[in-house]
Design a protein that fits this description.
The chain is an alpha+beta fold. It has helices at 5-18, 30-41, 115-121; strands at residues 23-27, 45-51, 58-63, 77-79, 88-89, 103-108, 111-114, 125-131.
């Protein structure tokens, strides 16, 4: 049993990047699928695939690296809102990661989105993680 599946997801991605892996396999959930879609849309991962095997299914994430220097697209990925201490942000105080160079992934009433999209739609929510 895992008490924080989102932290497990982020840790698996972080560990795969440190080990220079091309693909990482993660147990699936609807929230993890949405986070994966946001990471793909913003160019932090190369590709992803949802596989329905077993009761839960898995997400296969293809990590993205620079073709010449082999530097990963994700420099840092950090969990912000934890089960013991939830972090919420209203429309007035949405976080800016690296002064707008990175993204904050939020879980809002209108789905999982970045801080920039939440600012445009004028909604707040739970700050799940920072990526840059």
């Amino acid at each position: 049993m895992n008490t924080d599946p989102i932290a497990d997801y982020l840790t698996r991605v972080r560990n795969a990047i440190k080990a220079n892996h091309r693909v990482v396999e993660i147990p699936a959930s609807n929230l993890k699928k949405e986070i994966t879609k946001v990471l793909f849309e913003k160019g932090y991962i190369a590709n992803f695939k949802f596989e329905e095997n077993g009761p839960q299914g898995t997400i296969k994430v293809a990590l993205k690296y620079h073709p010449i220097t082999k530097i990963p697209a994700i420099r840092s990925i950090a969990r912000i809102s934890k089960p013991g201490l939830r972090k919420y942000a209203g429309t007035a105080n949405l976080p800016r990661v690296l002064n707008g160079l990175g993204i904050a992934i939020l879980s809002t009433s209108k789905g999982v989105m970045t801080d920039k999209e939440a600012r445009q739609q004028n909604i707040g929510g739970e700050v799940l993680c920072y990526v840059y």
